[in-house]
Design brief:
Blueprint: E1 5-8, E2 15-17, H1 20-26, H2 30-39, H3 43-50, H4 55-65, H5 70-78, E3 84-87, H6 91-100, E4 105-109, H7 116-122, E5 131-134, H8 135-138, H9 145-155, E6 162-166, H10 169-178, E7 181-184, H11 188-197
Parallel strand pairs: 1-4, 1-6, 4-5, 6-7
Antiparallel strand pairs: 2-3
């Protein structure tokens, strides 16, 4: 195996994003939060923004369906930043170390084109990637094959030249099918051990 390029997912790997952080402030208990995120602002509903749809239209349509919850639905956009929980501990440090050690670092992320600029202002490490493919900009999302192919075309790499890191099992399976080496992300410590074993990091440096 030759030298590998490292391809990161962002949400859940580098940045902790969870709508519960916001809706726990707006709803009275955990049961209400879970019901709202299951039945109203669901993951499936949010995926349309990752795929390139604009928030104003998606929120208007959903508020028309659930008029009594219009304010809560609007908060998904108006208070989106409150869904961010900060860096996933340790992973951005790994990204910076890879960059310092001259390992090519890239990203393929399911993220809205409207909210990604907010994240880049808050997390400067998002500017470190050599090639960055954002689903909302490309209007295609993981685990679809198209977004992986778009990355390979733009980076001029073969799938076998890349190790892809993601916390989502479906995305890992899609990347495996295309020939990527993969790491199903759990913790930064586990990722670090794997990258050291592959010779991509010179030594371990995270606290256990």
């Amino acid at each position: 195996m030759g030298p590998l390029s490292v391809v990161f997912d962002i949400g859940g790997v580098l940045i902790d994003w969870n709508p519960r952080y916001l809706y726990r402030k707006l709803l009275p208990d955990e049961e209400s939060v879970e019901a709202f995120l299951r039945d109203v602002c669901s993951n499936e509903w949010n995926q349309q923004f990752d795929a390139g749809h604009v928030f104003s239209e998606g929120i208007e349509a959903l508020a028309a369906k659930f008029p009594a919850k219009a304010d809560l639905i609007s908060a998904f956009w108006e208070r989106w930043q409150e869904m961010l929980g900060g860096e996933v501990p340790g992973t951005a440090d790994i990204l910076r170390r890879l960059k310092r050690e001259n390992v090519p670092v890239h990203a393929i992320s399911n993220w809205s084109a409207e909210t990604f600029p907010i994240a880049t202002k808050l997390y400067p490490f998002l500017h470190l990637f050599d090639v960055l493919v954002v689903s909302g900009v490309e209007k295609m999302i993981k685990p679809g094959e198209e977004i992986f192919q778009r990355f390979l075309e733009r980076s001029r790499l073969g799938a076998e030249d890349c190790i892809f890191i993601d916390d989502n099992a479906a995305n890992i399976a899609a990347a495996n099918k295309l020939g990527f080496h993969t790491v199903h992300f759990s913790t930064a410590e586990d990722l670090e051990r794997r990258l050291v074993a592959l010779g991509l990091l010179s030594q371990t440096g995270l606290c256990p």
